[in-house]
Amino acid sequence: MSATLLSMAFLPAGCPRVWTLTAPAPFADETSCQCQAPHEKLTIAQARLGTPVDRPVRVYADGIFDLFHSGHARALMQAKTLFPNSYLLVGVCSDDLTHKFKGFTVMNEAERYEALRHCRYVDEVIRDAPWTLTPEFLEKHKIDFVAHDDIPYSSAGSDDVYKHIKEAGMFVPTQRTEGISTSDIITRIVRDYDVYARRNLQRGYTAKELNVSFINEKKYRFQNQVDKMKEKVKNVEERSKEFVNRVEEKSHDLIQKWEEKSREFIGNFLELFGPDGAWKQMFQERSSRMLQALSPKQSPVSSPTRSRSPSRSPSPTFSWLPNKTSPPSSPKAASASISSMSEGDEDEK
């Protein structure tokens, strides 16, 4: 059972349940139900071993809580989880006390109260909490222990405003969160004042609302225009780079495809026209056919049916042709030569 439900379980009979875990924590002065259970003083050892069954341990934490941040929330989480069953009351100092003892705040007291009400670890918020805790205040709210970091807090003429709480054995230390504090946040804003002033002018705030002079306003607005131009140039450069990258990728793909097609073309060319290519073989075949067609047919050397007479030559002779060196001496001799040639042809047939 949660601490909130336990704390409500021991209220007087007929007291209604005025809040749930889905609602903000109530203010102490608006709560009609007050803790009426017997309140015996507890030691830290007893609280850590387990509290009496009739009530939770009531833990109190106070502060300014200006610009509520994670460091505040972690401190309240530690206070809430100090004991197995605890009820966390958070006191928030008013603007008057804070401005008097600590300094000016960014958030007013109403805003700071509301910020605490919506923290999940807070069970109850006490408005206008005292700067120094008095016995009457502790008794009124039935506070068992006070949670705060252990660093001495010097203020209001005291070396440590929690000194008497520590001496009474009611102080339980928590740990600070390094790197985050209200002062750190304000320091960042002051350091980068021009940046935030330009930012808010761009968002529609007036120079009067920002307490900015006329000259600074014009300067900030000019700087905003320069920044816009730089941003446009940057966008153009990025788009140009993207376009160039896309062109390079496509060029690479085209070159790769061209190389593949070139290798394929060269391979086909060599296969067709190379030393052992199909075109050479086809050319040789056609050449051989043409040579065979153009070459004269050779006469057979011997006849299978009859043999030549020894008086005749094995190959056809052209004895009928007139001898250039010895022309026929007379017409009779020429006539005899022609008749012998005709007889030779008949024998051939």
From TrEMBL:
Nucleotidyltransferase among keywords: yes
InterPro entries per UniProt: CCT (IPR041723), Cyt_trans-like (IPR004821), Pcy1-like (IPR045049), Rossmann-like_a/b/a_fold (IPR014729)
Biased composition, class Low complexity, residue ranges: 299-319, 331-342
Annotated region described as Disordered, given as residue ranges: 289-349
Span of the signal peptide: 1-20
Reactions this protein catalyses: phosphocholine + CTP + H(+) = CDP-choline + diphosphate
Enzyme class: transferase
EC number of the protein: 2.7.7.15
Purpose of the protein: Catalyzes the key rate-limiting step in the CDP-choline pathway for phosphatidylcholine biosynthesis.
Protein name stated in the entry: choline-phosphate cytidylyltransferase
Native source organism of the sequence: Lynx canadensis (Canada lynx)
